[in-house]
Please model this.
Amino acid sequence: MKIDIISAVPELLDSPLNYSIVQRAKEKNLVDINVINLHDYGLNKYKQIDDTQYGGGAGMVLMVEPLYNCIMDLKRETVYDEIIYLTPDGDTYNQKTANSLSLKGNLLLICGHYKGVDERIREHLVTLEISVGDYVLSGGEIAAAILTDSIVRLIPGVINDIESALSDSFQDDLLSPPVYTRPADFKGWKVPDILLSGHDQKIGDWRLEQSIRRTEERRPDLLKE
Ligand code: ADE
Model:
């Protein structure tokens, strides 16, 4: 799988993409991630990438031409399954979308900045618009990091124990059950006896019951779905 990310502030993506599970996936060649600096496509001697909006109003807009040139350059090299613009007015991201994107071959993510991108990029080049929640970030980079992380961990072979990814919260519209590790008794705070019983069937039943209870208490909307 290949994920290309266009950004005006590529430094923001340094640590999310270079550590932990995403880094390991890159080392195993299970994913190829490239961050493209939009400033490389800036116009004139100032390498301009943004301008004030037509019609007036506060805030700068990423210009159509640098983004267009950048996307066209990338499209000459790669056929993308989706060209995704990260924006607070996009479709709200969830595990189902992560699952479906993890099955794609090549993705291009576009990070907005300031007031966003010139609408013509969205109209003519973007195939999917995604929001990571009902709040406004300073740019799309953190949202792109969220997408990348949540997608990469689902690629077969990335997480050694595939059960671990499949048993995450949301995978079956249920939250995860509580988890514990050693010691079994910490200052009188005890691990539930059932988990120490060695009885796999009973442990499985207990976990499912805990998942359902947690989901009912915290996210009843998931059960309705
Ligand atoms: N850019 C700014 N805010 C965002 C959000 N909530 N989701 C995706 N991209 C964004």
